[in-house]
Specification:
Oligomer: single chain
Helix content: under 10%
Largest sheet: 6 strands, antiparallel
Structural class: mainly beta
Order of helices and strands: EEEEEEEEE
Strand content: over 45%
Amino acid sequence: MDTFFPVARLSEIPDPGKQVVECDEQLVVLFHVDGKVYCLDDVCTHDGGPLGEGTLDGCAIICPRHGARFDIRTGKPLSMPATQPTRQHEVRVDGDQILVKLA
């Protein structure tokens, strides 16, 4: 799929900050850090927890359920109990519009 979906406005997400949005009927989390925008599935691969409810710590998101940490730039797990990455999605910013292409 080569479709980019408009999901949010850049001005709606503080830097640093995050926002859960729906993209083509799927929940994803947008992260705005150091002027860049990243997008991951809103799913902790340890137990399916909602990453968007977690705490943003630099370029890591901490799952609110058991504390697994993921790199927001790649989706890779940084700490146990997660051992598998969560999906990362391609992001484009066009003016104030954030567009996401699902992986």
